[in-house]
Amino acid sequence: MFKTYYPKAKEIQPKWYVIDANGQNLGRLASRIARILLGKHKPTFTPGVAIGDYVIVVNAGGVTVTGTKTRSRLDTKFYYRHSGYPGGLKEVSLREMLKTHPERVIRLAVWGMLPHNRMGRKLLKRLKVYATPDHPHQMQQPEPLL
After folding, report:
1. Is residue 120 part of a domain?
2. For residues 73 and 75, what is the distance between their CA atoms, to the nearest angstrom?
3. Is the N or C terminus of the chain more exposed, i.e. has fewer CB atoms within 10 Å?
4. Which one-letter DSSP state was computed for residue 116?
5. Range of 48's domain?
6. Backbone torsions φ then ψ of 80, nearest 5 degrees
7. In angstroms, what is the C-alpha Rg of the chain?
8. Domains held by the chain: number
9. Does residue 21 fall inside a structural domain?
10. Could you tell me if 18 and 56 are in contact, meaning their C-beta atoms sit under 8 angstroms apart?
C-alpha cells in the first residue's frame, strides 16, 4: 500500500527570494508572489501546510497597472476601509496609495490571492515589501527572482 508524503515542520527549509517590482504589472507580480508564499513551485507542495518561501519585494513604488482604456486605472481603483462609526467609510485611490504607501498596494494585492484564514495570515508575514531598493535582509542571502 502506498502512503502519501506529508512534510514535517523540521524538514521544511524555506529560501529567501528578492523581487524588483520596478516596471512590473501589479496583478502578475502579486500572483507570482502568492505562488511562492504558498509553496506551489515546490514538488513537495501540500495544501494546508506552510511550505513556501520568504519573499522580499523592493522598489514597490515602480509597479505598473493596466486597466480601462477610457480612464486611467490609477483613478478608477479605490481601496476602502471603515472606522466602524456611522459615515466612517474612507476611500483612497490607487494613485494616492502609490504616492503615500506603495508597499501597501502590493501587500493588499497578494493578500487577495492568499487563503483568508490562519494559514494565509501566517504566509503574509513572510512577505517583506519596501518602497526603496534597500532592504535589511542581506544576512538571509536572498536569491534574485526574475
Report:
1. yes
2. 5
3. N
4. S
5. 15-65+101-144
6. -115, 145
7. 17
8. 1
9. yes
10. yes
What's at 62, amino acid-wise? G
Measured CA to CA, the distance from residue 47 to residue 132 in angstroms comes to 33
What pLDDT score does 28 carry?
95
In the numeric block, the cell 542581506 is attached to 138
Strand partners, 30: none
32 sits in which H/E element: helix 26-38
- Angstrom distance (rounded) from CA 48 to CA 38: 9
Q: C-alpha grid cell for residue 25?
A: 504589472
Give Cα 19 distance to the centre of its chain: 11
2 vs 135: which has the higher pLDDT: 135
Specify whether the CB–CB gap between 37 and 77 falls below 8 A: no
Show Cβ contacts of residue 140 under 8 Å, excluding neighbours closer than 6 positions: 16, 54
Q: What is the pLDDT of residues 13-68, one digit of tens each?
A: 999 999 999 999 999 999 999 999 999 999 989 888 899 999 999 999 999 998 77
CA–CA separation, 19 and 42 (whole Å)? 18
User: By percentage, how much of the chain surpasses pLDDT 90?
Assistant: 77
* CATH number of the domain within which 55 lies: 3.90.1180.10
For residue 49, count other CB atoms closer than 10 A to its CB: 16
